[in-house]
Amino acid sequence: MHTFTIIFLTAFGLHLAVQIWLATRQMKHVRAHRNSVPAEFSSVITSTDHAKAADYTVAKQRLGVLELVFDGAILLWLTLGGGIAGIGVVTASLGLTPLWTGVAHVLGVIAVLSLLALPLGAYRTFVMEQRFGFNRTTVGVFVADLLKAWLLGALLGGVMVAAVLWVMRSAGLYWWLVAWAVWMGFTLLVTWAWPRLIAPLFNKFSPLENPALRERIDALLERCGFHASGVFVMDGSRRSAHGNAYFTGLGREKRIVFFDTLLAGLTPVQVESVLAHELAHFKLKHVPKRLIGGAAMSLAGFALLGWLSQRDWFYSALGANSHTDASALLLFILVVPAFAWVLSPLLAAWSRRHEFEADAFAAQHSDGCELAHALVSMYKDNASTLTPDPLYSAFHDSHPPPSARIERLLPAGAATSRAAVAAA
Ligand SMILES: [Zn+2]
Question: Is residue 351 a contact partner of residue 398, using CB atoms and an 8 Å limit?
């Protein structure tokens, strides 16, 4: 067996083992705390809500483990099992030019992956989410979403893959630097166009109209010296009862989006505090920091791909018999996650730091107690666990554990007022 095959299998096995171990810890921890609501939440989260959140968290983890094993089997089939090579034989027989044969090869593998992910995706929506009362997606919406996503993926992905493969063929030794520049340009363009051109294909966005709320929000934007192209309400309730808020876009196209499902459960001052948290991600430059972090990582990725694509062993050790640019790209995209997962705790910690900073900003420019209220209400409505396993949370969670966030938002040493706030 090739040395790199052994290295890949070791990394792959380690990844699977660590993820399953963490998921098992999370399930055990959540189950162990299923029947006792943490004191600081006990006045607003009932034991029924808490037990539901525990059962929902465990159900999600179980499905997650199934997906891990399933995706792992597909990865082994595509690489060592010769799946990529086999799909390459089919696309080579289409009689296209070399460039378009490569594009067909990459998109063909992605299409196979999407089809294989379909059963578990449908199970998640129509069985698991349904069981916990969150699903609002009909089969019609589900199918329409899939078709739109596939069409969009083929279009945008096709353009991107064609551009990268073309650069690989024609830009010489430092093609990876050119490919990275193309990739970055494309990423920025899509990020910019997303709110106006792409997101509306899936959801309706209407300007926030509630006059009392509007006034509050305009005052907040004014106070923080913030210019956005608008605050919008999204019809999230078309698909799910889960609520959320997010910011999107770049430059003048920045938008703040509230799910209608979130607005339904919050008072105007709570909405203002949530908005202040979202604004903080802009004002504290979290968005450009993430873009720069992503740019640095993709540069490292392209440099590594540039080097690997020149090594014979990279292809032969991973089951690809033809040394085409498309095979290099596919092997790289599929195999890198087996190694790159070690970075995920660092990225999660970075994200949690940003969340704490955004909470502090919201407390300063709006009302920290009200944000705490709003968060508790969101935890309740989304059946988020209040008692995650500390190690699981440190590894995976982009947001700090609920108790840590609430504790920082409420006045110091105010254990009783914390309960009072939760009760309000
Ligand atoms: Zn945030």
Answer: yes
The rounded Å distance from CA 258 to ligand 1 centre is 13
Which residues neighbour 157 within 8 Å (Cβ) at sequence distance 6 or greater? 106, 107, 110
Q: For 369-394, what is each residue's pLDDT tens digit?
A: 999 999 999 999 999 999 999 999 99
**Alpha carbon distance 123, 119 (integer Å):** 6
Instruction: Please report the pLDDT score of residue 418 as a whole number.
Output: 45
**Ligand 1 centre and the CA of 281: distance in Å?**
7
Distance 156 CA to ligand 1 centre (A): 28
Residue 355 C-alpha to ligand 1 middle, in angstroms?
A: 5
Q: What is the pLDDT of residue 159?
A: 94
Distance between Cα 225 and ligand 1 center (Å): 19
Q: Is 178 left (phi over 0), alpha (psi -120 to 50) or beta?
A: alpha
Distance of CA 228 from the midpoint of ligand 1 (Å) = 17
Q: How many CB atoms lie within 10 A of CB 122?
A: 15
Measured in Å, residue 248 CA sits from the centre of ligand 1 at 12
Least confident window among 130-139, 280-289, 377-386: 280-289
Q: How does residue 227 score in pLDDT terms, banded at 50, 70 and 90?
A: confident
Candidate from 88-102, 104-118, 410-424 with smallest mean pLDDT: 410-424
Q: At what angle do helices 325-335 and 98-123 cross, to 10 degrees?
A: 30
Burial of 410 (0-12, 13-18, 19+ CB in 10 A): buried
| Residues 393 and 402: beta-carbon distance below 8 Å | no
Q: Name beta bridge partners: 205.
A: 234
Hey, is 401 helix, strand or coil? coil
Name the pTM for this structure.
Answer: 0.88
3-state DSSP percent of the chain in helix, strand and coil, to 5: 75, 5, 20
CA 318 to the chain's CA centroid: 28
Instruction: For residue 283, give Cα distances in angstroms to 80, 225, 252, 291, 369.
Output: 47, 9, 14, 15, 21
Q: Other CB atoms closer than 10 Å to residue 143's CB: what's the count?
A: 12
Share of the chain above pLDDT 90, in %: 71
Distance in angstroms (rounded) separating the CA atoms of residues 145 and 154: 14
Ligand 1 being an ion, which residues bring their Cβ within 5 A of it? 355, 358
